[in-house]
Specification:
- This protein is of the alpha+beta class.
- It has 9 helices and 20 strands.
- A hairpin with a 2-residue loop joins strand 15 and strand 16.
Length: about 425
């Protein structure tokens, strides 16, 4: 028995010593440059050239590697010009991480798929989770904790947002790549101490500094869409809501946003906001300003919505006597870009032809109404209508004829004059 224990102890010691020597040698002789090249190749290969990565240093970490000063890039095709018909790919910095650690998930490989665990330090917070990919589904578990929003400014042609507070995100998503509508999952985004700092603006209008008492966005996956179930941002001066959904695609990076942001302002700021032409057009009859959030989940596009202006124009048309009795299509609330995204090319073509047909019909009816009104003015004061001429008077005159004012022959002195009623003047 004692001999067996000695052998076991000796074997354990050899295993520990061998592991220590192996790891020490691996750390001392790890091919950092070759590892960086391999990491760059794997990211480009797995993302189908949609992302690229760079790092300052690479070292072994457990069953994976750890990198310092990591930058993740979005990759796009360059703009083609006459001088350069095949431009190179353009890389745009997407995320900058202080550290990134990636390790393999052995079980995913044993089941015929691929999977990695990841941990990162990001803007004074942490990021961790895992990613698995197989022939039938893609699984993402992502958790962000205490991310400093002050280090993530948002700037676009429409809005500049100086954010403050901390961000926490929990994503659990199983994307069925064979049948997207069978996908499951949820997204929860919470903020602590969230607000807008000075320098924020929308449509050229400066927003006041705001601190939200509630800031939460939750989404649930249903029928291939991440539907917003709760999106409220409440403060004493500015309130906002987010509605809509994200249409999931087989390639997660190509999932498209169909979200709407609606916000209200206090009375004094509301009057000032209407000095901005863009904001005034986006304001509806209830005093809410709306904006559409489109693009992909990794590349958002923000633009002010003009449905408010269309609502006001239709209200004025209802008061126009020439527009009464005309069925005007009304915009469907909440549809916007989302409705168009669900239509096929053929459905869009048919809908466009219908809209053109309706416009032409409205114009025809307006012309008829206008012609009828002009006809009522032409009628004499005694109610006797004037028969319209079959031809244009200009067509009855010879070409290039200079018809001046008609010349009447002088009335003879003995010719009696008559009143308009036909009686002879005494």
């Amino acid at each position: 028995m004692n001999m067996a224990l000695k052998i076991l102890a000796w074997a354990t010691g050899c295993l520990v010593w061998g592991t220590f020597c192996f790891l020490t040698g691996l750390y001392l002789t790890f091919p950092s440059e070759a590892g960086l090249e391999r990491l760059s190749f794997e990211v480009a290969e797995r993302s189908r050239d949609e992302f690229a990565i760079s790092a300052a240093d690479l070292a072994p970490w457990g069953l994976g590697v750890a990198a310092q000063e990591v930058v993740l890039y979005r990759v796009k095709k360059g703009r083609r010009t006459k001088a350069d018909e095949k431009p190179p790919l353009e890389r745009t910095p997407f995320i900058e991480l202080e550290t990134l650690s990636v390790s393999a998930r052995p079980l995913a490989f044993l089941l015929g798929g691929q999977g990695v665990n990841f941990n990162a330090d990001f803007h004074d917070g942490t990021v961790h989770g895992f990613f698995e990919d197989s022939d039938s589904e893609t699984t993402l578990s992502l958790h962000l904790a205490d991310i400093d929003l002050g280090q993530i400014p948002y700037e676009s042609a429409v809005a500049v947002l100086r954010l403050v507070g901390r961000l926490n995100v929990d994503v659990e998503l199983v994307l069925n790549t064979e049948d997207v509508k069978s996908s499951t999952g949820s997204v929860a985004i919470n903020f602590s101490g969230f607000g807008l700092a000075e320098g924020s603006e929308v449509g050229g209008f400066a927003l006041p500094a705001v601190e939200f008492s509630e800031a939460r966005l939750e989404m649930a996956c249903e029928e291939g869409k991440l539907n917003v179930t709760h999106g409220e941002f409440v403060s004493p001066t500015l309130n906002a809501t987010i509605s809509g959904f994200i249409s999931l695609q087989k390639r997660l990076s190509r999932s498209r946003n169909s979200l709407e942001l609606a916000f209200t302002l206090p009375e004094d700021l509301d009057r000032l906001a209407q000095l901005s032409a863009d904001l005034k057009r986006s304001r509806d009859g209830e005093g809410r300003y709306t904006a559409m959030i489109s693009g992909t989940i990794f590349e958002w596009a923000f633009r002010l919505n003009r449905s408010g202006a269309r609502s006001r124009s239709t209200a004025l048309d209802d008061q126009d006597p020439l527009s009464k009795g005309i069925d005007r299509p009304r915009p469907v609330s909440g549809a916007g870009v989302a409705g168009r995204d669900d239509m096929t090319d053929e459905e869009r073509r048919v809908a466009r032809e219908e809209r053109i047909k309706e416009r032409r019909e409205r114009l025809r009816q307006r012309r008829e109404e206008a012609a009828k009104r002009r006809g009522e003015v032409v009628e004499g004061s005694d109610g006797a209508g004037i028969e319209p001429m079959d031809k244009d008077p200009d067509e009855l005159a010879p070409d290039n004829a200079d018809l001046g004012p008609p010349e009447l022959p002088p009335m003879p002195d003995d010719e009696p004059a008559f009143y308009e009623d036909g009686n002879e003047e005494p």
